[in-house]
Write a structure and sequence with these properties.
This protein is an all-alpha fold and 516 residues long. The protein folds into three domains: 146 residues, no CATH class; 154 residues, no CATH class; 118 residues, Fumarate Reductase Iron-sulfur Protein, Chain B, domain 2 (Orthogonal Bundle). It has 22 helices and four strands. The protein starts with a helix and ends in a 14-residue tail after the last helix. The N terminus is likely disordered.
């Protein structure tokens, strides 16, 4: 049994949590919600997961068992550890989703994220094709209004399905489709015995011809004629190239021209990283030339504060995905400086031009690995890896710290906004039904955590934690998982939560939080 490999025996007494009318059956085996507060049942739940993993992927299970047996010391901080955890995390995510009966909601989240992939292909198109085809001087001469009108006519005539999306996603999907058509027409119909490939080629050819017919019957035909390439003889390819020229002109104009930029304000596909000027990290204005010491921030960045309500809108879901897409996933080359710090050739920690040491995340959070899983849309899997090193992640995120961001591999241009990505991962899980319960469970039961896969029973020893700031409440969490009884005190008044939510000191099953 894997349990004999990973944990010392505990002589603590069984949990005294009593069943109540707040208890209910979970979606795995005979486990109930109350079992999630009984250490001996957490151990059984972990064994159930390991058994299912072995059945689904025996080699992966064997590798994970070796990692757990070594308490993580064999692979700590290596590329192999990253690959192992990334491979195992989706299995854990599916298990947890089934446990809380949120499989459909999890699948919907994954589909929603994958549905945004086209936006980042548009971003590549803007940077690598449109702006190379039309350098700044040329882009400034483009008739942006004409290009915008031609693009809208094209969408209405040949890509009406994209009109149901917001403009950024709709134009992104249109772009991806045109690029696929261009690639297909340039290479020609492949001679293949693979019936699936042949069917796909035939479908692409049919789609191009159908779109061309619709365009020629509408106003879009005349609009595209302005962008036609007379050197292309094939009618289908000429149509696709003309449509792509419309896109190139539209993208270049809206990326460069001040008047056109307002039409794509807030679009991540037009957000390109800017160079870092360490002497001007905060954008300011000096409104009076005769008084240069008078300065203030840009008006568009000001937020009016009224009382103590939060005015921070945080990143949107698409903006979070933009940061994840921007990441280079440096763990694949053991260069994830955001987590491990940026080093000189002699191994010493680098300093940036402001003299700040670039030591990376003080918790060694698995950031790059989190991004890989978030890119695939699996926020539960991503959060599971975050919680291994940072179980109290609601206390970090974009409002708290940015040590990781300062140590990002991008030192000469805008870094990846890792704190926003972390906040986005946690928020996505909390938005699931029972999302808080999923997070809460992963803090005391995480079978991918080689050091402590699940909380131990009470060992009879009590600890007083004085001061409940971030360090204090995190220490209390780790002590609880090691089996200690914990009492926390602070100089400020601590308001008790309702007993129905806390379980009355471990005597009752807490009331489950369905929505937050």
């Amino acid at each position: 049994m894997m349990q004999n490999l990973i944990l010392e025996k505990s002589d603590g007494a069984p949990s005294a949590v009593e069943a109540s009318n707040t208890d209910f059956a979970l979606g795995v085996g005979d486990f109930s919600y109350g079992d999630l507060y009984r250490p001996e049942r957490l151990r059984a739940l972990a064994e159930t997961f390991y058994a299912e993993l072995e059945s689904a992927d025996a080699p992966l299970h064997r590798e994970l068992a070796q990692h757990l047996a070594a308490r993580g010391r064999n692979l700590a901080g290596t590329k192999q550890e990253s690959e192992l955890l990334i491979a195992a995390a989706p299995h854990l995510s599916r298990f947890v989703a089934r446990l809380f009966r949120v499989e459909m909601e999890r699948a919907a989240q994954i589909a929603a994220v994958c549905g945004q992939d086209a936006v980042f292909q548009l971003k590549v198109f803007v940077a690598r094709r449109a702006l190379k085809k039309f350098p700044v001087a040329q882009a400034l001469t483009i008739n942006a209004e004409q290009a915008r009108a031609a693009l809208m006519l094209l969408r209405r005539a040949a890509f009406a399905d994209t009109l149901a999306d917001d403009d950024e996603l709709g134009i992104s999907r249109l772009t991806v489709r045109l690029l696929a058509w261009e690639q297909h027409l340039v290479k020609g119909m492949a001679a293949t015995s693979d019936q699936t490939v042949a069917a796909q080629d035939a479908e692409l050819s049919h789609d191009v011809k159908a779109a061309l017919i619709r365009v020629n019957k509408s106003e879009a035909g005349a609009a595209l004629a302005e962008f036609a390439d007379k050197s292309v003889a094939d009618a289908d390819l000429a149509f696709v190239r003309a449509a792509l020229r419309v896109l190139e002109a539209w993208a270049a104009a809206h990326a460069v021209q001040p008047g056109a930029k307002r039409h794509v304000r807030g679009w991540v596909s037009f957000r390109l990283p800017h160079p870092l000027d360490y002497e001007r990290l905060v954008q300011i204005e000096r409104p009076r030339a005769e008084l240069p010491e008078l300065l203030h921030g840009l008006d568009q960045n000001l937020r009016r504060r009224d009382g103590f309500a939060l005015t921070d809108p945080r990143a949107t879901k698409r903006e979070v995905l933009d940061e994840v897409d921007y990441c280079l996933y440096c763990h694949e080359r053991d260069k994830d400086s955001c987590s491990k710090g940026l080093r000189e050739r002699d191994g010493t920690v680098k300093r940036n031009p402001l003299g700040i040491t670039l030591e990376g995340c003080p918790l060694d959070e698995k950031i790059s690995e989190m991004h890989v899983l978030k890119k695939a849309g699996d926020s539960i899997a991503a959060l599971a890896l975050v919680i291994i090193d940072n179980p109290m992640c609601p206390g970090t995120g974009h409002r708290i710290c940015n040590d990781c961001m300062k140590s990002c591999i991008f030192q000469k241009q805008e870094p990846v906004n890792i704190p926003q990505a972390e906040t986005g991962v946690l928020t996505d899980v909390l938005e699931l039904p029972s999302g808080f319960e999923i997070y809460s469970l992963l803090t005391r039961w995480n079978p991918l955590n080689a050091k402590r896969p699940y909380a131990l029973p009470y060992n009879g020893k009590n600890v007083l934690v004085v001061g409940l700031g971030p360090a204090g409440y995190t220490l209390a969490h780790y002590l609880l998982n090691e089996g200690f009884g914990v009492v926390g005190i602070d100089g400020l008044k601590i308001e008790r939560l309702d007993k129905s939510l806390t379980g009355d000191g471990g005597r009752l099953v807490p009331r489950a939080v369905r929505d937050v």
